Amino acid sequence: MGSYKQGDSTFYNHIENFANLGDFMSLESVLDQMKREQRVLTEKIFIVIFKAYGKAHLPDKALDLFNRMFEEFHCRQSIRSFNSVLNVLIQEHCFDRALLFYSNGIEKGIFSPNFLTFNLIIKAMCKMGLVDKAISTFREMSYKDCTPDVFTYSTLMDGLCKEGRIDEAISLLDEMQIEGCFPNPVTFNVLINGLCQKGDLARASKLVDNMFLKGCVPNEVTYNILIHGLCLKGKLEKAVSLLERMVSSKCVPNDVTYGTIINGLVKQGKTVDAVRVLVFMEERGHRPNEFVYSALFSGLFKEGDVEGAMKLWEEMIEKGFKPNVVVYSALVDGLCRAGKPDDAKEILSQMVTKGCTPNAYTYSSLMRGFFKTGNFHKAILVWKDIESNGCTPNEVCYSVLLQGLCDYGKLKEGLMVWKHMLGRGCKPDVVAYSSLIHGFCKAGLVHDGLRLLNEMLCQDADSQPDVITYNILFEGLCKLNNISRAIDLLNSMLDRGCDPDLITCNIFLRIFQEKLSPQQDGRDFLDGLVLQLCKRQRVAAASLIVEVILQKYISPKASTWGRIVKELCKQKKVQAAIEICRSKLFN
After folding, report:
1. 342: pLDDT confidence band, cut at 50, 70 and 90?
2. Would you put residue 520 in left (φ > 0), alpha (ψ -120 to 50) or beta?
3. Whole-number Å distance between alpha carbons of 296 and 71
4. How far is CA 522 from CA 454, 485, 512, 551, 553, in A?
5. Where is coiled-coil annotated (predicted)?
């Protein structure tokens, strides 16, 4: 009725409430009213609004309001509001804009940075991979009377580790302690993770000891990093042992810990042990997620234990776990690889009934399964089901279809699919290209296959030819008795950094035995191949060719033996071989 007049504090309460609720329309209305009534707006209130914009992922709004603060609301910005907006930009990964904002505000002398400003901009630079620029900014701190804190050092160490500059990051650990800044568990975890990613577990272990000496107790993150590092190096026994030590240290393993070990065991072909870890995990009250189950299904099927995989599936359902598209896809793919696409089709039908929509990878696995077992028509029906069920086929779907059609000699249909694929804007990968090249070669159109190879060479990395692509063309050229062209193509393949394999060797050996008169055993050819690879410093590939020579009961030339042995017996390689032998003996 006009008898009560709102004070400034009432408006402030309204702003805080609307900001907390994310009601920006009402918030703007209050700001407009305050502006009309010429109310005083403090910087503290603007910082509350900036935080709300950050929480709502609206960096543009925060930046716009910052620019309007003085002009419209007569509130002069300070480094506090500047840092608040800078933080919003960085949280939203607007790193380029954060750098520009920093440059306009700090480098032009409008604001004087504090340690928080430096921490934020160093973080942005490290996220952008501008580590050297971050180091320069870090060195500027002392000139601005800002002392780096543990966050500053940890952020810079993380940036260096991600660039593979581990030694520089570790030297910062010594520097920070000299400067009187003591590391916390986060600092050590950053360095331990960097060393584990590099595979340097010995130094990582020493850093853990150093951590204890500095009074920092390893936490769940530390153990997870170490376990992940051990799994990457294939040291699963030590990883499991560390898990037990983690439990005994009253440090509770989480889903990441168990998932890492289970995934590592599966990759080493020890899925039975991975299932035991699953039981151990459930006994301690941890519910496995979809990635754990999908890894286990993939591992059991890969090891040929179809019965074990289906038993695990039934147990999973009985425990009330509702499989999602990741788990269903793993089961469908496993059954198809085991030669049971009809069973996989039933699982896919159950999946749809349960309201879980199959994705392109699910359909691709089922198509591949039917093609593999010779059920050409069923595979085509699956392809027709993809779009009718509201799923858009991707590059993988097209590659599987192309491969299936070309394997069955359906080149005309394959070309129609190829045009359809390009018309949809799907970029062919190496599998799609190789499949169509195989179709051309099978139909005797090797020159069309070579034309497609030249097209591949102009594409990006995902579409570059691999040894399978070249082997298809070698086979096609040999059928046309175009041996010289096949050898030219082999040299081109070597020049492009693609190494031959056993199939490559067998194709050329067969040529020399069947197509040449008089017949040759291929010794000179294989010897020459070894020397070419050695000249290119591709010793592993050269060693493979020597193994092929020995398997074929062909005696290598003395010069070939000398060259390959010399390359293999370089000091570092010998030492690595000794370590491998030692570990095999004692394990």
Report:
1. very high
2. beta
3. 62
4. 28, 17, 6, 13, 11
5. none
Give the whole-angstrom CA distance, residue 291 versus residue 255.
10
Please say whether the beta carbons of 164 and 132 come within 8 A: no
Residue 452 forms part of a structural domain: no
CA torsion through residues 306, 308, 314, 320, sign: negative
Q: pLDDT tens, 4-37?
A: 456 677 888 888 888 888 888 988 888 888 888 8
CA separation for the pair 121, 106 (Å, rounded): 11
Query: Residue 557 burial by CB count (10 A; 0-12/13-18/19+): exposed, middle or buried?
Result: middle
DSSP state of 286: P
Total number of domains constituting the chain = 3
Q: Please tell me the distance from the alpha carbon of residue 134 to that of residue 127, in angstroms, as a whole number.
A: 10
In a domain, 367, yes or no: yes
**What pLDDT digit, counting tens, does each position of 136-172 carry?**
999 988 888 888 999 999 999 999 998 989 899 989 9
Domain end residue (candidates: 336, 365, 393): 393
d(CA 362, CA 102) in angstroms, rounded, equals 47
String of DSSP letters for 345-389? HHHHHHHHHTTPPP-HHHHHHHHHHHHHTT-HHHHHHHHHHHHHT
Distance CA 555, CA 500 (A): 20
Question: Could you tell me the CATH number of the domain that includes residue 358?
Answer: 1.25.40.10
Contact at 8 Å (CB) between 207 and 173?
no
Both 380 and 492 in a single domain?
no
Which one, of 385, 447, 445, 373, lies nearest residue 409 by Cα? Answer: 445
- The verdict on whether omega for the bond into residue 428 sits within 30 degrees of 0, i.e. cis, is no
Write out the two tokens for 106.
């700090």
Q: Which amino acid is at 483?
A: I
For 126-143, write each residue's pLDDT tens digit.
999 999 999 999 998 888
CA 2 to chain centre: 64
- Which structural domain, as residue segments, surrounds residue 540? 466-587
| Tokens linked to 401 | 């279809």
Residue 191 lies in a domain: no
Based on DSSP, count helices (H) and strands (E) in the chain, helices before strands. 33, 0
Is residue 118 within 8 A of residue 141, CB to CB? The reply is yes
67-84: burial string, b at 16+ Cβ within 10 Å, e else:
eebeeebebebebebbbb
Q: Which two tokens stand for residue 444?
A: 């005797």
Whether this model's pTM surpasses 0.85: no
Listed residues 393, 412, 434: the one ending a domain? 393
Give the largest Cα separation in the chain, rounded.
Answer: 116
How many residues does this entry show for the chain?
587
Asked whether 330 and 293 are in contact (CB, 8 A), the reply is: yes
Q: Is residue 364 part of a domain?
A: yes
Would you give the distance in Å from CA 155 to the centre of its chain? 22
First-residue to last-residue Cα distance in the chain: 88
| In the block, residue with structure tokens 């139909």 | 443
Q: How far apart are CA 226 and CA 207, in angstroms?
A: 11
Q: Do both 474 and 573 map to the same domain?
A: yes
